[in-house]
Amino acid sequence: MIQDNRAAEIAARLRPRIAGLAPETRLPGVRALSQEFSASAATVSAALAELSALGLVRAEPGRGTFAVGVGETREPDFSWQNQALGSARVDPDRAARLGGYGSADHLPLSWGYLAPELLPAEELHRLASRAAKQARSWAMTPPTGSPELRRVVAAPYRADPNEVIVTPGGQQALVFAMRTLSEPGATLITESPSYPGALIAAQSAGLRLAPVPTDANGILVDRLEEELRRSRARLIYLQPGFANPTGATLSAERRARVLELAAQYGAFIIEDDWARHLGIEAQTPPPLFTAALDGHVVSVLTLSKPASPGLRLGALVARGPAAARLRASRTAEDLGVAPLIQEVALSLLTSSAWPRHLSRLAQSLAMRRDALLAALRESLPQARIAAPPRGGLHVWARLPFGTDTDAVCAAAEDNGVLVGNGRHFFVDEPPAPHLRFSFGAGTPAQFAEGARRLGALFSEGSRMHEPSAVEPGYPNAGRI
């Protein structure tokens, strides 16, 4: 978990104290501040760095940190920016929760990345050290990525290496694809519920979102056809394997129908293949890209999920004129991903450690998934989970009709538990209250304690749930 929030909190608490100090007054040392605020030295140092950037303190190595006399100042007036900027495209609430929230003290019952102990950290350290010594790690690569890495990435997609474009992470690839394959004001059809990062990527590209419901077998193809006919959309966003947040996998029958509809209506499918390496009891289905010879599918993949959140490397796979346009736009975007990162990724993907890591990861995720489900069954019987996910990282739980998920998540965070507010996974108003839980970042002990705290909140707080005699469509709701 990142600790930016904690550092910002400490900085905010220090500001009024600093304002009352005479210029050149020495502040207490980092060790003393760490004890005062019950925070790590790194967090206190980050808070002091923030204050230094604001011009409120000055750090002198070997001497300490000193208050700066800034004299009388006025509050800045940013009102002019409201008119200059116009309407905001991106939902700040979704965006604020995407990159991380909470502190190391929170129990991570909803988090989109793996726990540190599940990462191939030692292998990454070794490979990075070796890559840093290679001359080509510091040389220029093509904007689309190194030929060797593109060749490895292309293989599972049965693609030509020239159809692969390396990007700095899957999220950047989503934004890049949506912005390049459409014009502002166009419509993007998305499954609903869906990954919030895709929703804000579409907003960033200026697209109008058209949600289509899903079930345990993926997007409802009849409803998809209705939306294509109505909106004439040329862009569809799908997660065919172990979707975030539902864990659903697009069935074979629907996969074929989705491709037929894309061809019939002349639409692109952006295939978010983020869970390619996260199968547990089942292999992730073959990419839709492999069955779309005419270029109706553009695939997005990432190594940040299975390898490390710090390995910001992803890729786009596309065919035809769309691929040519993406390549040209990639050059305009920047001149490529850092060669050192590409070398580390290439070494990892071609090492004997990679399949061993994936095998161990599947076993660990199965154990943690089962532990999370058992904890929810024991302490939060109000949750209803249709079926255990067979891959991915997430569990989608429906709560009793009338539950206020905003209140649940706020109270949970106040009690040291991070859960995903189901409202953020829908384009518009959610049809029912949901929470997203994740099993990749927490331990069984954390799941048990987090579920216990959640269960206590439901028992103690009437604001969590407004009782209803009948729960539409869920006669057996309340059981996992």
From TrEMBL:
It comes from the Bacteria. PROSITE patterns: HTH_GNTR. CDD domains: AAT_like (cd00609). In the C-terminal section; belongs to the class-I pyridoxal-phosphate-dependent aminotransferase family. PANTHER family: HTH-TYPE TRANSCRIPTIONAL REGULATORY PROTEIN GABR, TRANSCRIPTIONAL REGULATORY PROTEIN. InterPro entries: Aminotransferase_I/II_large (IPR004839), HTH_trans_reg/aminotransferase (IPR051446), PyrdxlP-dep_Trfase (IPR015424), PyrdxlP-dep_Trfase_major (IPR015421), PyrdxlP-dep_Trfase_small (IPR015422), Tscrpt_reg_HTH_GntR (IPR000524), WH-like_DNA-bd_sf (IPR036388), WH_DNA-bd_sf (IPR036390). It holds the Pfam family GntR. The lineage of its organism: Bacteria, Bacillati, Actinomycetota, Actinomycetes, Micrococcales. Residues 4-70 form the HTH gntR-type domain. Keywords: Aminotransferase, DNA-binding, Pyridoxal phosphate, Transcription, Transcription regulation, Transferase. GO terms for molecular function: transaminase activity. The keyword Lipid metabolism does not apply. This is PLP-dependent aminotransferase family protein.
